[in-house]
Amino acid sequence: MSEINSLLLASFHSPSKMQTMRAHNLIISLFFLIIFVSGSSAMAKNPFRARKPCRRLVFYFHDIIYNGKNSNNATAAIVGAPAWGNKTILGGQNHFGDLVVFDDPITLDNNLHSTPVGRAQGFYIYDKKDIFTAWLGFSLVFNSTEHKGSINFAGADPLMNKKRDISVVGGTGDFFMARGIATLMTDAFEGEVYFRLRVDIKLYECW
Fold this sequence. Notes:
By secondary structure, the protein is an alpha+beta fold. 22% of the residues lie in helices and 42% in strands. It has three helices and nine strands. The longest helix has 29 residues. The N and C termini lie far apart (86 Å).
């Protein structure tokens, strides 16, 4: 009887092959769990790596708005205005409700009289009463030997910020299916008749 008890106690205290395998699998699972948690924490701190643009361009476009007296050199005109405004003077209340269409020359430097490399064609609408801001939709249409085609842009333009980003939503020709970001900066202005916009284009999809 004592020998049987000894054998039973030995089998109870000695781990079986199945128990050993379970313990082994548990240790491996814990090891991979620790690696996964550590990797997730690192990704949370740095969710994505900064991508470099595949192409970068800088242009200036010059907007001369029609004021009733400058039809010979105006490149933009008010085509829609609220009840309290008119189509020759931008309205009050941060120009809210004014819709302007433009066909502005694009240059490689900030000189209005430099040779244009294309046209900036589109519109902007002042869309808030309580702050000076606009919404832009336009294309840079190129006619130079260096660039052919167009780049299309759309987005909010919070004019009180020194630099603003809008989306590059497409393109044609040399810029077919382009995607990216354009950083806008009002480079100069003269009252409410002229402004010059610096457009720093960073493309992240180039075909």
